[in-house]
Specification:
alpha+beta; five-stranded antiparallel sheet
């Protein structure tokens, strides 16, 4: 019987009946009572429940035997299937395969019926392997999709900003990065400076304790030992400080460089607030741009990526006098014939672009097909000319 299975009610009744009969008998034998009721009730319970228990026990034994036989048959089937697989027998359709399968079955003393479901078993193994392969492939695809989503988020972080707000947002992000780096190097320099400061032993206290416990001679010896250890500690501290000095200096210099860079970003932010922007439609700004060396790729997930050099076709002037740049976000539209397959946002860099140009990068997360050549058309999402 299964260990987790409850005993049948008849077994419980039988056990209680035996206990009642024994208790009644013991009480009568010990002259504790002359009432036969308890013992009679117990004997009646035994008489009623034990046949039921007996037949249930036989049923359980029969079920256990059946399960054991099934397990043994399954072991034989598995051995037979594995042997067939070893000898490359994938079905029993041909006479030669039947002969080979029969020889294996006879050698293993398998029942004849195992030969009937050989093809089904081997097909289930093949299906299981395919499912595992599909799951592994899907895990790789999911990982690649996650990386593409992260890249998309990074590339399009400032796609929704317009005008001065875009440059200010990007400058603020850089300032935060510089401040975080400065804080990191500050922690490192402080930790490095803390090394080589091992505390010395108080030789007077140690000598006094030893003197009080074991006499004056012991106190002197303890004090001298403490002083010797202190000399070693001082030497170790000096060596450590000397070794760490250039490292700490390097950390401090890095901290200072990042703090200065953060301060410069703050200046740029204030300067940006007063920059002049040429007022013109975004489509007119787009006409002043050129796109060259476009490289379009499609990933296994269907994501379409593009890298392209964008530049101003001629120098940008604000109010016809002050040097400027083109800034904003351009849309790269991917066409398969006349069908729009997808769109990627190309965010221009912090200082925009001038005549020398900059490489832009974008990604459309889906809609692509490997091996397809896409035509790219560029449209304006947000574009403007701004004082550099």
């Amino acid at each position: 019987m299964n260990n987790n299975q409850r005993p049948p009610v008849s077994q419980i009744i039988a056990i209680i009946s035996v206990i009642m009969a024994l208790v009644g008998f013991i009480m009568l034998a010990g002259d504790q009572t002359d009432d036969f009721t308890l013992m009679f009730v117990g004997l009646i319970g035994i008489a009623v429940s034990f046949p039921v228990v007996y037949f249930q026990s036989k049923k359980i034994q029969k079920e256990d035997l059946r399960m054991q036989q099934e397990a043994a048959a399954q072991e034989l089937r598995t051995a037979f299937y594995e042997k067939c697989k070893k000898y490359n027998i994938t079905s029993i359709k041909t006479a030669d395969d039947k002969k080979k399968a029969a020889a294996i079955a006879e050698a293993l003393n398998c029942p004849p019926e195992v030969m009937k479901d050989l093809s089904g078993y081997l097909e289930s193994i093949k299906r299981e392997k395919q499912e595992k392969s599909d799951a592994a492939h899907q895990a790789v695809v999911n990982e690649e999709k996650q990386k593409e989503r992260e890249l998309h988020a990074k590339l399009t972080k400032y796609a929704g900003y317009t005008g001065k707000e875009k440059r200010i947002a990007m400058l603020e992000a850089r300032r935060t990065e510089y401040l975080q780096e400065a804080a990191k190097f500050d922690r490192l320099s402080k930790y490095g400076a803390s090394l080589g400061n091992q505390k010395e032993i108080d030789w007077a206290v140690h000598g006094g304790i030893a003197s009080g416990l074991a006499g004056g001679a012991a106190g002197v010896a303890a004090a001298m030992d403490a002083q010797a250890k202190n000399a070693q500690i001082r030497a170790n501290n000096a060596a450590t400080r000397q070794a760490m000095a250039p490292v700490v200096t390097g950390f401090w210099n890095k901290q200072r460089e990042n703090e200065q860079a953060a301060a410069q970003m703050s200046k740029y932010i204030e300067q940006t607030k007063t920059k002049i922007i040429n007022k013109m439609p975004k489509e007119e700004v787009l006409k002043k741009m050129g796109f060259t060396d476009a490289k379009v790729t499609v990933s296994s997930t269907g994501a379409i990526s593009i890298k392209v050099k964008a530049s101003a076709q001629k120098p940008v002037l604000i109010l016809d006098a002050v040097e400027g740049t083109i800034d904003g976000t351009v849309l790269a539209n991917f066409y398969e014939g006349s069908r729009l397959a997808g769109t990627a946002e190309l965010v221009l860099p912090l200082w925009g672009i001038g005549k020398s140009g900059e490489e832009l990068e974008g990604i459309c997360l889906n809609g692509g097909k490997k091996g397809t050549a896409y035509r790219v058309e560029y449209t304006a999402k947000h574009l403007w000319e701004m004082e550099k």
